[in-house]
Amino acid sequence: MDKRVKQFLEYTVAYAQGGDVPPRDLIGEVAEITPPLLPKPADARESLWKILSYPERGRALAILNAVDLIEEFLPSWTAYTDVRDLRLAAVEQVHLERWADGLGEWAFGKVCRFHDAGVDERLNGWALTALATLLAYDNEQIAAYVSSVRLDLTQLDATDGEIERVVSIVTEFPLVHKALQNGEHKSFSVLPGTLIAALATMLADQDNTKEQIDSAIKAADRWLSQK
């Protein structure tokens, strides 16, 4: 790995922690390096995992995207040529927690319990929901895409638990997103992370009205509260 890329990743991890944006001249230099910037993406996985673990992950991912590094970590990201800004904004909405405004106490507690627990003693639920939100694809026919996400995560040396959590959310997302857009909930259970990914996506989409958002949050509350 080029030492400039390594330095850039170190700055980006610090940026996700709340530090300063990486130096502009370094961003420019990295952007001009001939791909691949990550000859072995798994060697840099720890940097991506750290970024996902910190609250300001959304803005840090945007910096990675600016130099085309997300697609080197996760080749499935190349499917997003038209909705990348929305996916990045949705990740930011996971952190901002506007989705909680309208959830009842029991439903919010269920979300927190699910996300505060670690997975395979490495990434916690918030980090994995953020990653799944980044990769969520709003298409009901997504079997091939889900397979590509699984392959990407396997090649990054993600654990089995991490892979299953992200893949499960990505798989459930299209149906859950569509239902919440209609202010509906279903009788079967879905992961709390999927509901947060769908609400975060709606909050990031400026085409949705406040009334639609409020209706979606109420539907998510009912979904979370059913036995």
Summarize the structure.
Helices cover 64% and strands 2% of the residues. It is mainly α.
The residue fraction in helices comes out at 55-70%
The arrangement of helices and strands along the chain is: HHHHHHHEEHHHHH
Low-confidence stretches: none
Major β-sheet profile: 2 strands, antiparallel
SSE inventory with pairings:
Layout lengths: L2 H14 L7 H9 L12 H9 L3 H10 L3 H4 L10 H13 L8 H12 L1 E2 L3 E2 H11 L7 H13 L4 H22 L10 H13 L5 H16 L2
Antiparallel strand pairs: 1-2
Helix pairs in contact: 1-3, 1-4, 4-6, 6-8, 6-11, 7-12, 8-10, 8-11, 9-10, 10-11, 11-12
Describe the structure in your own words.
- It is a single chain.
- This protein is mainly alpha-helical.
- The protein has twelve helices and two strands, in the order αααααααββααααα.
- It has a two-stranded antiparallel sheet.
- α4 runs antiparallel to α6 and α6 packs across α11.
- The longest helix has 22 residues, at 160-181.
